[in-house]
Amino acid sequence: MTKRDYSLLGPDAARAVKTGLATAQWYHTEVPRKEMKALMQRSDQPAVRDTILLFGAMILLAGLGIALWPSPWSAPAWLAYGVLYGSAMDSRWHECGHGTAFKTPWMNNAVYQIASFCMVRNPVVWRWSHARHHTDTIIVGRDPEIVAMRPPALFRIFLNFFGILDALTGWKHMLQNAAGHLGPEEADFIPEQERPKVFRVARIWVLIYAATIVLAVAMQSILPLMVIGLPRLYGAWHHVMTGIMQHAGLADNVLDHRLNSRTVYINPVSRFVYWNMNYHVEHHMFPMVPYHRLPELHEKIKHDLPAPNTSILDAYREIWPALKRQLRYEDYFLKRELPGTARPYREDLHAEALGVPAE
């Protein structure tokens, strides 16, 4: 049984570079150039509509929560506000980080900065981190965003449903960056010229949090923190739930997103919160396709992909047994079955990258 070292500076990272798994050539479903060019066209309208809905709902829910405070009747408003703050902002951070949500660059950047603050993810650090995730998706020692490692740390995953470890780590790094320091793994993928931006953002955030805490103390109430800060904890569950579905239980160290990513059909409310990232195989194959075109992309290439899970519950029916089995047998994974219309997995490509003879 293989013991995995997920550190970006460990032996598995060096092995990935040596065997050609790092920055490798990935499999892509063939899509006619003209059709792909049309799918990649960006538009402001869908994202402007969704952003107005998101921030309008957040303002309304926060207003209700404040008006009903401290009555228990305020709880539903806060719970809904928390999901928009601590989960919908995760998908907004993601899509605007790719620069595909809006056609207008400053709109992408504005929403990206706000979403990064809500999720406590330094926008400079995470832009580079997520670029690495797409370059080396679920490659052990290279991908800094692997959620369900092997063996899976189930208690850690459980705590993150309440945002506890992720948020605390984010605040810790915020203070570290504000003091002018980077962690060793951050230094591995952030260019030297970008580091002053990391520190500047962190210092602005510290000022915002300090002002919020001062206001809470002056009011002798946690109400200001219910608006800024705490929703990252009590609203995290949805983004963790959907995030686990992306890759958990599937293959690692392979060069085909059909093997290591999962597409799931989900309900319309969750799709709004998640911004269509449930089409995750499609997104990883073609990350420059805007979120609102992913359903269309899915229809064009589904003949070449594993059958999607039919619901969130259906996804977890296969994920949970796989994670439990990985506790005992680290090398176990779910291999996705392809339809008869699909091109086969390129076993030769994987074997070449791993330095073993193809069968």
Automatic annotation (TrEMBL):
Domain of life of the native organism: Bacteria
Entry's Gene Ontology cellular component terms: membrane
Matching Pfam families: FA_desaturase
Sample GO molecular function, one term: oxidoreductase activity, acting on paired donors, with oxidation of a pair of donors resulting in the reduction of molecular oxygen to two molecules of water
InterPro entries reported for this sequence: FA_desaturase_dom (IPR005804), Fatty_acid_desaturase (IPR012171), Rhizopine-oxygenase-like (IPR039393)
Entry keyword set: Membrane, Transmembrane, Transmembrane helix
UniProt keyword annotation of NADP present: no
A GO biological process held by the record: lipid biosynthetic process
Transmembrane segments: 51-69, 153-171, 204-223
Protein name: Fatty acid desaturase
Provenance organism: Marinovum algicola
Top-level taxonomy: Bacteria, Pseudomonadati, Pseudomonadota, Alphaproteobacteria, Rhodobacterales
